[in-house]
Fold this sequence. Notes:
CATH superfamily of chain A: Cytochrome c-like domain
Order of helices and strands of chain A: HHHHEEHH
Low-confidence stretches of chain A: 1-7
Largest sheet of chain A: 2 strands, antiparallel
Mean pLDDT of chain B: 76
Oligomer: heterodimer
Distance between the termini of chain A: 45 Å
CATH architecture of chain A: Orthogonal Bundle
Order of helices and strands of chain B: HHHHHHHHH
Mean pLDDT of chain A: 86
Number of helices of chain B: 9
CATH topology of chain A: Cytochrome Bc1 Complex, Chain D, domain 2
CATH class of chain A: Mainly Alpha
Helix content of chain A: 40-55%
Number of strands of chain B: 0
Number of helices of chain A: 6
Strand order of the largest sheet of chain A: 1-2
Structural class of chain B: mainly alpha
Strand content of chain B: under 5%
Largest interface: A-B, 36 and 39 residues
Radius of gyration of chain B: 26 Å
Radius of gyration of chain A: 18 Å
Amino acid sequence: MTDTPTPRPWRLAGRSLRAAAAGLALALLAPWAGAADTTPARQLERFASEAGRPGAVEAGRAFFTRTHGGAWSCASCHGEVPTAPGRHASTGKAIAPLAPAANPRAFTDTAQVDKWLRRNCRDVLKRECSAGEKADVLAWLGSLR
Amino acid sequence: MSAWGRSQALIPERAARRLVQVIPRAAETLAGARPADEHAPAYPPVATMSAGRAGARAVPAFVALLLALCAWMPAAAGERALLPADTPPVYRQECGACHLAYPPALLPATSWQRVMSGLAQHHGSDATLAAADQERIARWLQAQAGTSRRVREVPPEDRITRSSWFLREHRKGEAAVWKHSAVGSPANCAACHAGAERGRFDEHALRVPPGLDSRLLRAWRD
């Protein structure tokens, strides 16, 4: 790392771009590497039946985009409209789009869904989300095209 | 060697190995090596002849070895990959979801131990894992942790980006580049290090983050 000469990135632009594209694809897909055992629709059903009511699209949008007493909202990392890739608010790492319309692997692994909701709700709300909140957010995400 | 280096050198290495097999045989043919004939005059004497044949075998083998070495050298020297070939997929999947799957050799074992036992409050985020995954990753990190003189020193907050070697490597205006929206954080290695996802941080494979103004670009190129 120390004994290499001054970089000449402009000469390596083509190679770097290819490497960057490969890296980006790998990076974006990494969190969704779990086995596909479910669908976004089935996950919505699960949370709605737990909550005893259907998910509400507008409530999901509002919940997703506002902060809940802390510094972050869901949108801080996933973006206001999560059909586009997001970006981790502290590390800057690219995050695959959360909306199923833009990411066929989103919400297709039950263990991953539960893990991320558990962690991210704690980061944003300092508690776990209720089944109703999850149903709302999934209803909104599923409505995005 | 890393998986990356190995894949780069794979074809020349295989070719070289083939040469090792083929060249001695060709050399034997050229030298007129033939099945021992009891009736043929004993010339050259058996001992000398076998020594000659061993020599004929050794020289091309040496040449092939050199060729193999040449094929391997650029991959090894220029493309030193820090992410081990045995990196468990669960490490990339879990740790690599929020930040780069950092090469384990960039932190000492003490730091990794503290990081892995404090995942509920991981630099302000809940990064808790399933028990089996956590144990698997923690064990691998302990085995792969950095032991070199410069990495042995435990950095503040167990952050790679606060290690003295890291700050020394990035002392020429990078701090301003990190703040730029295209980078966001010194933890975002891949913003400039195009090979970071594969554990490659060599200065030849740098890319300019998009949107840097001319002042930052100058700082970056330094």
